[in-house]
Write a structure and sequence with these properties.
alpha+beta; Fructose-1,6-Bisphosphatase, Chain A, domain 1; 8-stranded mixed sheet; D-Maltodextrin-Binding Protein, domain 2; 30% helix
């Protein structure tokens, strides 16, 4: 591997320091809208610019795909970055937002990091080597009953334009489970499944940069990553991540 998890952590934590500088001064930062319900702040732009520059210095042979700046020329081997996943939460002064960085080589996710600076929780994984939170190994939950499960979801920011806006699906799941959570950062939600804090998470109409790192972390923690039909793989438009033990019970509700 051309970069170690330790070096990646240094870079991502430094990006987190930049994000926190903006987070502590929200009254004075620019907050704009890319579309009616899709926010972008000066922090998103600054964090992505830092990561793009720093990662290109460490691995100049790799391309870059960031939510704010788009794709560079080389996309065969690339960094996939969401500088602040949960921008709306960030802009409101809430703590549940994260920086998501994944490395993809030949269409295979091989490394991922998700950092929640306001919570100081750092999740990471390398393909075939397990998943970690703040340096400790993590695993998905042992829950086997859907009725006892806590499930997370999210709603696309442009849901008013969608025929399938996830509300009917949410109602079906809510009636069959004990707890539902909607935190606002898909990257963090996937890590909560990896850490056993959620038993499953689903969302639709996402982009790869929202879920790449978190999906790898969930897989390395023993979770399943499928679409709503149960096909294995990372599908941003339909992602269902579970502890593996309630997958068959949850699929019919999707």
């Amino acid at each position: 591997m051309p970069i170690s998890l330790a070096v990646l952590e240094q870079v991502v934590r430094e990006a987190g320091t930049i994000a926190l500088t903006y987070f502590k001064d929200l009254k004075h930062i620019a907050i704009d809208k890319k579309s009616p319900r899709d926010f972008v702040t000066a922090a998103d732009v600054a964090v992505e610019a830092f990561l793009k520059e720093k990662l290109s210095q460490i691995c100049p042979e790799y391309g870059f795909w960031g939510e704010e700046s788009g794709q560079t020329a080389n996309q065969t081997n690339r960094w996939i970055v969401d500088p602040i996943d949960g921008t709306h939460s960030f802009s409101k002064g809430q703590y549940f937002w994260s920086i998501s960085v994944a490395l993809e080589i030949d269409q295979q996710l091989v490394m991922g990091a998700v950092y929640a600076p306001a919570l100081n929780d750092y999740y990471c994984a390398e393909l075939g080597k397990g998943a970690f939170k703040n340096g400790e190994t993590i695993q998905v939950s042992d829950e086997t009953s859907l009725a006892n499960s806590m499930i997370g979801t999210g709603f696309a920011c442009l849901r008013q334009y969608l025929t399938d806006n996830n509300l009917a699906r949410f109602n079906r799941v809510a009636q069959q489970t004990t707890g539902q959570r909607r935190f606002g950062s898909a990257a963090m939600d996937l890590c909560l499944v990896a850490d056993g804090q959620l038993d499953a998470f689903w969302e639709q109409e996402l982009n790869l940069y929202d879920i790449a790192a978190g999906a790898l972390i969930a897989q390395e923690a023993g979770g399943t990553v499928t679409d709503f039909q149960g096909n294995d793989g990372i599908f941003p438009k339909q992602i269902l991540v579970t502890n593996g033990k309630i997958l068959d019970q949850l699929l019919p509700l999707m």
